Each structure stands twice: as structure tokens, then as C-alpha cells.
Task: structure prediction
Amino acid sequence: MSFKTEAFVLKNIPFREADRLYTFFTSQEGIMQAVLKSAAKSSSKQAGHLPSFAKVKIMIGRGKMDHLAGAISLVIKPPPRDLAYHWAGLD
Result:
């Protein structure tokens, strides 16, 4: 069984040899983890769509360990420059 949902990527950590374990926050499931197979390989097509803190549309396959079956980036925006200056106390 699989399902599609929108999520925010919270973090990713290396898992086994070439895989990565991603942590997502979704409105339906809350915080969840899923494995992306071969994400650490240079030929991985999906890993580039999953930077930290990005809003993504993902397809999750259920099983013993949930796995990513597809991913699309929806929004990738760095914080505004003036906000970074404000936090650093440079304004």
C-alpha cells in the first residue's frame, strides 16, 4: 500500500551503505521516517529534490520500513537576506 502527501523535510541521515533515512513532517501522519534507496550515489535522481527544510510532495510505500517511491520539490526558499542581517544584529 502507498500514499501521497505533502511534507516538510526535517533531516536526513546516512543509512546502510548508499541509502538515506529521511525524517518528514506531514499534516496527516505527523513526524515520520522513510528510506530512500541509493540516495548517496551520484546517479540518484530523487535525492536532489529533498533538501532539508523544503516543502515536498512525496509518495510513501508502506512496509516493514517505509520507503520513498517518489518526490517533487514544491518550495525551496532561503530566508530573506534582511532577516539574516536582523538575526546577526547587523542592521
Summary: The mean pLDDT is 81. Residues 81-88 form the longest helix (8 residues). DSSP finds one helix and five strands in the chain. The beta strands are 2-15, 19-26, 30-36, 55-61, 67-75.
